[in-house]
C-alpha cells in the first residue's frame, strides 16, 4: 500500500515531533514528582526521628557520629571522583559510592554502639562486684573514685567529692546485680546511630540524583559536605560556649585535613 503523499508526510513530522517532546516531558515530570514525593516522605520521617535520636544519644555522641560520617563520605566521593567515568555512568558510580558509604558507615556505627553498650554494662557490673567484695570501706571508696565519673569529681570540692563517693558506696554495697548482655534500648540506640549517620550524609548524594555531569555533581556534593561540617562546628560551639563562626571554620579546616590524610593513606 503506498504511503501518504510527500506533503502529508511533511505535515505529520512536526506533529510526531511534538508528541515525542510531550512524552519526554511527561516522563521527566513524573521522575521529578517521584523525587519530590520521596523527599517529602523523608522530611516527615526526619521530623519523627528528631525526637527519637536524642532519647538514646547525647549531644557529644550525635555530633561525633555526624562528623565521622561526613568525613568518610567526603573521603570516598573525592577518591571515587579521581577515576569516575563521564556522563550518566559516572554519576551513577558516584551515587552508589555516596549511598554505599552512608549505609556501610551507619551499620559500622550501629554495631560499635552495641559493642560499647556491652562493654560499659560489663564494667559497671564488675565495679559493683568489686565494691561488694572490698575488704574495707577505704578500698571501696578508692575503687569508686577511680571508676565513677572522675571528671565530675574533679569539678567538686574535696568534701563534696568525698560525700559523693560515700553516697555511691551506700547504694552499691546493697545493690543486686541484674546480668543483662543486651537490652531493647541498646538496639534502639543502634538504630539511632544508623539513622543519624545515614540522614546527615544523605544530602551529599542528592547532587548525583539531579545533575548529569559527574564532576559538577561531585563539586556540589563536596560543597554541601563542607557546609555541613561548618554547621556541625556551630552546633558544637553552642554546647561548649565558644564562637559559632570560629568553631564552624575550625571544624571545616579539621575535616578537610582529616580527609586529606585519609586519601593520602589510601582511605
How would you briefly describe this protein structure?
82% of the residues lie in helices and 0% in strands. It is an all-alpha fold and 267 residues long.
List keywords for this structure.
267 residues; mainly alpha; disordered N terminus
What does this molecule look like?
The protein is mainly alpha-helical and 267 residues long. It has one domain. It is built from ten helices and no strands. 22% of the residues are buried.
Please count the helical segments: 10
Radius of gyration, taken over Cα atoms and rounded to an integer in Å: 28 Å
CA(first)-CA(last) distance: 67 Å
Mean pLDDT: 75
Count of individual beta strands: 0
Task: State the helicity in percent bands.
Answer: over 70%
In sequence order, what are the helices and strands, one letter per element? HHHHHHHHHH
Topology overview:
Layout: H1 6-52, H2 59-81, H3 87-133, H4 137-147, H5 150-154, H6 158-173, H7 184-201, H8 206-210, H9 214-240, H10 244-264
Helix pairs in contact: 2-3, 2-7, 2-9, 2-10, 3-4, 3-7, 3-9, 4-6, 9-10
